Amino acid sequence: MKVLKSSFFMLLPIFAFSTVLMAAESPESSEVASTPLSWAIAPIAALLALGFAYYFYKKVMEAPEGTDKMKEIAHHVREGAYAYLFRQYSVVTLVFIILLIIFAICAYMGVQNPFVPIAFLTGGFFSGLCGFLGMKTATNASSRTAQGASESLNKGLQVAFRSGAVMGLVVVGFGLLDISLWYLILDKIVYTAAHMESGLRFLGLQLVPAGMDPNHKLVEITII
Q1: Out of 100, 112, 192, 208, which residue is the most buried by the measure of CB atoms under 10 Å away?
Q2: pLDDT by residue (tens digit) across 65-83?
Q3: What is the pTM of this model?
């Protein structure tokens, strides 16, 4: 019953979002939306994945941590894991800055799509966030898995599988969410009819060429 209640409240905003999108694409609307209704599948799936990831994380944290010795060992493991993760992120951040500069230079030279540097940053941010959430869940689940396995095989496997599912679901969820938001921004804000006709420049970059054929809009969006 608890699972059903949690799922119901989690799905409410998703259904509301889908309804709003369908209304925006209805024939009665004053402007025909160019975003296909099938686009809604991606953000809905992303929100579902993130919702279930949160649910599984809460179930993992509800499991008993085990004995004092288990808690002590888990605490040291957690400290070491975070030290490794933040050290890794400090190096990756430096690499990201260098690559961002290279992509920006290429964009200004006209040999790189102007949206790639920003898309590179958003993808990197979500990737780092997924790594942090996965590490947090795994280190919190270690002693709980051991305690569950000491009681029964089923309890140990439940904690372990739920912990692993969190990482997989946040990767899929944030990945789909990132792509969905980019598509919506490009479709509704960047590649508008006015911009395709007169062109769009920003910070010296030619984002949309003047006189662009509207039939090539989806091609331009998907090759970014």
Answers
A1: 208
A2: 888 888 889 899 999 999 9
A3: 0.73
